[in-house]
Write a structure and sequence with these properties.
By secondary structure, the chain is an alpha+beta fold. The protein is built from eight helices and 24 strands. It has a single domain (2-418), classed as Anthranilate synthase, CATH 3.60.120.10. It is globular, with a radius of gyration of 21 Å. It starts with a strand and ends with a helix.
Length: 422
């Protein structure tokens, strides 16, 4: 594990200052091109974060939780907006799907500057010595659209991936496991380093009801909220079961929604995911509500069966604690979890890295939001002109390999659009 403090304040405690600001306009415009930056935006709300005061690289959410508890206890906070959800000093993170089987590292970052909006209130938080300015940072340089972009491969071809799906279906039908989520990837290459601010901006514009995220080379727009903890209330949005529009976009949305709501295959897949989240949350909740039937969440490219689980938790269960308990859920792994993980490791033929892992933030009080890093991709520092895109599908007994392949193709669409390829 690596803990790195970027700024040295000597023996003085760190101080965060939060001030109300006029509406800053689109938050993503403050993202700089060169210096470290992060973002977490939905429907124009959320924040962008600039610079790094401290950084923690780890293998586990539990270790990150302990580290942030120690760091946040050393920060004094002056605020013009006390109690407003999401304000003040934050730690922003992106975690691996399976630390035991990944060469990637999870990361938790404490930013120097945060510019945010929630409802009609906007704010800025700066972390540093007492004398630091409260002036807004300059807007970033204009973003650059990707140039000469092409799909150059992936870890598995279509035929190999469908063969793997067929093998997993056989395992499920022989009662060795109930559900397995399989992922595949595409490698996309441009002629120059990718400007992830451009990708984030396209995703935030075209998919406003998702959580658009940018953290340490991970960028995407996920529809799935692993959890939100706000005071005593915890919420988790479970998505599993998918239909998609045809390539020409001519499908009748009402017919597609009805098809999804009546699909026994998708209902079964969704029930596994709901049960896994409800069971993981139960030990932390004094009360919990799990709807009896899912709703249909409509996105521009796909529809999902969706269930919002809510519960009442105690102060000792921080957002990071809850994320550690919930991840990986059946929505991104399968069930039973340990068997699904073993099958993924043996058959999937790729390192997911931080794809399908928690991505989000936590504040000094333990409140926060953690989504699942879906509909996205990862750019590595040593190959800034390349991005590895990921998409997955839940495999159950009634799955069809060719249909699951089509589902992953539909889930690649948001990132391909943002890169100018669809």
């Amino acid at each position: 594990m690596l803990a790195k403090v970027i700024l040295d304040f000597g023996t003085a405690r760190m101080r965060a200052t939060t001030v109300a600001i006029p509406d800053p306009g689109p938050l993503e415009r403050f993202l700089p091109d060169a210096t470290p930056a992060a973002a977490f935006i939905r429907k124009g709300e959320g924040f962008v974060a600039l610079g790094e005061v401290a950084r923690f690289e780890t293998d586990t959410l539990e270790a990150a939780d302990v580290w942030w508890d120690e760091i946040s206890s050393q920060i004094d906070h002056d605020s013009e907006l006390p109690g407003l959800f999401g304000t003040g000093p934050l730690a922003i993170g992106s975690f691996t799907f399976d630390p035991d089987r990944s060469e990637d590292r999870s990361v938790l970052i404490v930013p120097e500057i945060i510019v945010g909006r929630r409802g009609d209130v906007s704010w800025m938080t700066r972390l540093g010595p007492r004398h630091r300015t409260t002036a807004l940072p300059d807007r970033g340089e204009p973003t650059r659209a990707p140039q000469h972009v092409n799909v150059v491969g992936g870890s598995m071809g279509d035929e190999l991936w469908t063969d793997i799906v067929a093998s997993v279906i056989d395992l499920i039908r022989s009662d060795e496991v109930h559900k397995v989520v399989l992922a595949r990837d595409l490698l996309v290459k441009a002629s120059e380093p990718l400007d992830l601010r451009h990708v984030l901006g396209r995703l935030a514009r075209d998919y406003p009801t998702t959580w658009a995220y940018l953290v340490d080379g991970m960028v995407g727009a996920t529809p799935e909220l692993l959890l939100r903890r706000q005071g005593a209330l915890v919420t988790s949005r479970v998505l599993a079961g998918t239909v998609w529009r045809d390539a020409e976009g001519g499908s009748d949305p009402l017919a597609k929604a009805a098809e999804l709501a009546q699909s026994q295959k998708d209902i079964s897949e969704h029930e596994f995911a709901v049960e896994s989240v409800a069971s993981a949350l139960a030990p932390y909740c004094q009360a919990m509500n799990v709807p009896e039937a899912p709703s249909v969440l409509k996105l521009p490219n796909v529809m999902h069966l969706s269930t919002d689980i809510t519960g009442v938790v105690g102060d000792e269960a921080s957002a990071l604690t809850l994320a550690a308990a919930l991840h990986p859920s059946a929505a991104v792994c399968g069930t039973p979890t340990h068997l699904a993980l073993d099958i993924i490791s043996e058959l999937e033929s790729l390192d997911r890295g931080r794809y399908a892992g928690p991505v989000g933030w936590v504040d000094a009080a333990g409140d926060g939001e953690w989504a699942i890093a879906l509909r996205g991709g990862q750019v590595r520092a040593d190959r800034p002109e390349e991005i590895q895109l990921f998409a997955g599908a839940g495999i159950v007994a009634d799955s069809s390999p060719d249909v699951e392949l089509e589902e992953t193709a539909a889930k690649f669409v948001p990132m391909l659009q943002a890169l100018g390829l669809a």
